[in-house]
Amino acid sequence: MAERNSIRVEEIHSEKRRDLARLNSWLEQLVGRNGSDLLLVPEAPAAVRVEGALSAIGETSLSGDEIERCVLPALADHARQEYEQTGIADSSYRAEGVGRFRINLHRERGRAAATVRALPSRVPSLEELRLPSSVRGLAGLQRGLVILGGATGSGKTTTLAALVNVINQESARHIVTIEDPIEYEHEHNKSLIEQVEIGIDAPDFPTALRAAMRQAPDVIVVGEMRDPETARIALAAAETGHLVFTTLHTTDAASTVSRIADSFPQERQHSIRAEMAMAMAAMLTQTLIPKKGGGRVPAAELLMVGYGARQHIRKNALQHLHQEITITRKQGSFTLEESLAQLVFQNELSREEAMTRALHAEDLDALLKGKGF
Questions:
Q1: Over the stretch 293-336, which tens digit does the pLDDT of each residue have?
Q2: Could you tell me the pLDDT band of residue 185, with boundaries at 50, 70 and 90?
Q3: 331 within 8 A of 302, measured Cβ to Cβ
């Protein structure tokens, strides 16, 4: 009996190794094509996203059970437990000889599905990201809350890592990052960097952020401001002299302020806006746009928060924040329309494409006409 049990256990381990090898094979193809994501969806072949476009890398459709068997062995223990309890889990994964990846295993229509994102082996520079030059100034701030907004896949996390890298190269500071999962691994340079992964090093963002406040950090990076408690602690950290970076799924400065304030009960929203007015240092939003000739290029908007913006935030007069960008241009602010116009001038975007991306089309039209476009 014991021998049969031992054989069965070995068979199970062998099956898990085969399933994991299948996942690794897909990931090798993803990396070989310089793709960004592997998508595993029931009733469809495995597919990869390359420069924003999807293409199949298998001929046979997958079942939910197949996807679950292939992905579960790659999850960290905490993520596997989370998936069993909630049906959703995020985890980092290192495939030997292939690279690092971020896995999201979830369920749709009662079946397992997964998205696996390739994580770069090094942190890119801001120059490589092609962001406007004044974005670099965010790394020189000494205190306050800096929020990076944008849709999923807009490059927020990469920009955040590039800013941390600038600080690391230029300043002797203590940096604590809190991420779920860790996407970019930093090496100590002039700064000392501690990287906390949710689920492995701390149970959640609020707990990790409270702990970070006791670690004498100069800079705190919160991978995502997911809940009011995280927002409250981040605001308190920024108000007490720390430089705090975080991300939100927002498209401009007004929606960034609204998203945070609206996450609190109505009776708290006035006081939260007052805290934001004191703590906020800058709001950067960005998007990635397909460019002429292939690839993608970022367009961005930056508001350096000054006296006027603080008054508008406090009074909830958020419709006036856009005009503050023009007023604070000398401090580094720029509009999305200025960023788009520059891309048109550089012949990377068509006029028509830029117009569809603008939030204030009349402003972009005036900029383009001024240059004869």
A1: 888 899 999 999 999 999 999 999 999 999 999 999 999 999 99
A2: very high
A3: no
Other CB atoms within 10 A of residue 98 CB = 16
Dist. CA 19–CA 335, nearest whole Å: 48
Say what the pLDDT of residue 14 is.
62
Retrieve residue 4's tokens. Answer: 């049969």
Percent of the chain scored above 70 by pLDDT?
96
CATH number of the domain at 286, please: 3.40.50.300
Q: What span, in angstroms and rounded, lies between the C-alpha atoms of 288 and 297?
A: 5
The residue out of 87, 119, 151 marking a domain boundary is 119
| Buried/exposed code over 48-77 (b: 16+ C-beta within 10 A; e: otherwise) | bbeeeeeeebeeeebebebbbbbbbbbbbe
Q: Is residue 342 domain-resident?
A: no
Residue 111 domain-assigned?
A: yes
What Cα–Cα distance (Å) separates residue 291 from each residue in 266, 297, 300, 372?
42, 6, 15, 20
Same-domain status, 113 and 234: no
Task: Tell the residue number behind the tokens 């592997």, with chain if given.
Answer: 38
* Residues 313, 246 share a domain: yes
Q: How many domains does the chain have?
A: 2
Q: Three-class SS of residue 139? A: helix
**Cα–Cα nearest to 186, from 280, 123, 110:** 123
- Residue-wise DSSP of 73-116: GGS-HHHHHHHHHHS-EEEEEEETTTEEEEEEEEEETTEEEEEE
In a domain, 356, yes or no: no
pLDDT tens per residue across span 202-251: 999 999 999 999 999 999 999 999 899 999 999 999 999 999 999 999 99
Q: Give pTM, 2 decimals.
A: 0.85
Reference 140, options 176, 178, 170; nearest CA is: 170
Q: State the DSSP code for 310.
A: H
